[in-house]
Amino acid sequence: DTAVSQTPKYLVTQMGNDKSIKCEQNLGHDTMYWYKQDSKKFLKIMFSYNNKELIINETVPNRFSPKSPDKAHLNLHINSLELGDSAVYFCASSPQGLNTDTQYFGPGTRLTVL
Amino acid sequence: AQSVSQHNHHVILSEAASLELGCNYSYGGTVNLFWYVQYPGQHLQLLLKYFSGDPLVKGIKGFEAEFIKSKFSFNLRKPSVQWSDTAEYFCAVNAPLGSYIPTFGRGTSLIVHP
């Protein structure tokens, strides 16, 4: 059973398009995250939700909008895609969002903007 | 703001060699420290973590890390690496800055030759 799953795994699209990445966790965790990993492998947090409530919103363009319909899902919608959005996007979850929590990662979505 | 430095970006070893990967962080208060590993084609997963107690932490697959507060370091070690240890290794810090923001280093790519 996959603990944290993301779809799609690969996404290739043109500049200016709008796209979404879906994330689901079946671990019963309260907290979910989105990370962006750039070409230099830096893994930077974008958003965090705890029980469907936004708790971390790092300096991210407002073209990026997370949506959490329930605590098992955290989707990422990106409007007006730009070349610089090309990266690997990782979803993760943790039990309670505590700073001692282990994070459980999804397989990543490789987004390529042409 | 907290930051994490992993000075070794690429490490190449032969099997049975000893491994030490450096991790330094910048935050003066209490921190929780993690090492995550990403094997080829797999998810990031926890290798080990420290949040209190014995500063020498043992993780899975024979890995260990030592928290040295005075040096702001949390180096990862393994006495004898195997080919199957080939992976990306990420150091991460969680500091209790209100809603904590997990900060990752840029990762170290380890290649072990059989």
Short description:
The complex is a heterodimer of chains A (114) and B (114). Chain A has strands at 4-7, 10-13, 19-25, 31-37, 43-50, 53-57, 64-70, 73-78, 87-94, 104-105, 109-113.
Describe the structure.
Chain A is built from no helices and eleven strands. With 114 residues, chain A is mostly beta strands. In chain A, strand 4 and strand 5 (43-50) form a beta hairpin. In chain B, 0% of the residues lie in helices and 51% in strands. With 114 residues, chain B is mostly beta strands. In chain B, the strands form three sheets. In chain B, strands 2, 5, 6, 10, 11 and 12 form a six-stranded mixed sheet that branches. Chain B has strands at residues 3-5, 10-14, 19-21, 24-26, 32-38, 44-50, 56-58, 64-68, 73-78, 87-94, 103-104, 108-113. Chain B has no helices and twelve strands. The A-B interface holds A 4, 33, 35, 40-45, 48, 55-56, 58, 90, 92, 97-108 and B 32, 34, 36, 42-46, 49, 51, 88, 90, 92, 94-96, 99-104, 106-107, 109.
Beta content of chain B comes to over 45%
Structural class of chain B: mainly beta
Shape label of chain B: globular
Unreliable segments of 5+ consecutive residues of chain B: none
Q: Main beta sheet of chain B, described?
A: 6 strands, mixed
Summarize the largest interface: chains and residue counts.
A-B, 27 and 25 residues
- By DSSP, the count of extended strands of chain B is 12
Mean pLDDT of chain A: 92
Shape of chain A: globular
- N-to-C terminal Cα separation of chain B, in Å? 41 Å
The total count of helices of chain B amounts to 0
How many helices of chain A? The count is 0
Element-level helix/strand string of chain A: EEEEEEEEEEE
Mean pLDDT of chain B: 91
